[in-house]
Design goal:
Blueprint lengths: L1 H20 L5 H21 L2 E8 L6 E8 L5 H21 L17 E7 L12 E7 L2 E7 L6 E8 H19 L1
Parallel strand pairs: 2-3
Antiparallel strand pairs: 1-2, 3-4, 4-5, 5-6
Helix pairs in contact: 2-3, 3-4
């Protein structure tokens, strides 16, 4: 509930700020903000990913767009892969479908390597995941990274990395296995 309230307040403030300064922001920033806001809202509804941040690389052209989320449920690498691919795909499709932003893109079509997604994991009550469990999953420059909080050092430690393409193949392979089992 707290996260939903924060999201509503964030949306309200960003829309107020955007209206107040929209004539000062470059069109690429306005379009990118609209796309990220819609995708964040859709992922909250579809996957229960709670938006907690956004970013991008847009100095000259739109090189990268980023979204961060909180997820209030311990997960394993398989579920982390599913969430990351869903988020990367949702944002990639939304960018490529928006004709207004195309002239500002560094490359069209925008690709998974142009998307950054971070998902911070918490227990259902909002408390921190215990050390040794998956704490953060992310997609950066086309590489999916799965991190735990190391029980010895209390620092984040990568335990597995795979390219976006490898992750999709693994996911599609597990989906095909489910179809065979359900026959």
């Amino acid at each position: 509930m707290r996260f939903l309230l924060l999201f509503i307040v964030f949306s309200f403030l960003s829309s107020c700020s955007q209206k107040k300064h929209s004539n000062q922001l470059p069109p690429k920033v306005i379009f990118a903000n609209e796309i990220r806001k819609k995708v964040a809202s859709d992922l909250y509804k579809k996957k229960n990913l709670v938006p907690c941040g956004s970013g991008g690389g847009m100095m000259r052209q739109v090189e990268m767009l980023a979204l961060s989320f909180d997820y209030r449920k311990p997960i394993d690498i398989k579920m982390g892969r599913e969430l990351l691919i869903a988020a990367v795909d949702e944002l990639t499709v939304a960018v490529n479908a928006d004709e207004r932003i195309r002239p500002y893109l560094q490359n069209y079509p925008f690709e998974p390597k142009n998307i950054e997604i971070r998902i911070f994991l918490y227990n259902p009550d909002g408390s921190d995941i215990p050390p040794g469990s998956l704490s953060v999953v992310g997609a950066l420059e086309g590489v999916l990274d799965y991190k735990i909080r190391d029980p010895k050092t209390d620092q984040l430690k990568s335990i597995h990395k795979e390219t976006y393409e490898e992750a999709v193949r693994i996911l599609l392979g597990s989906e095909a296995s489910k179809d065979v089992i359900n026959l």
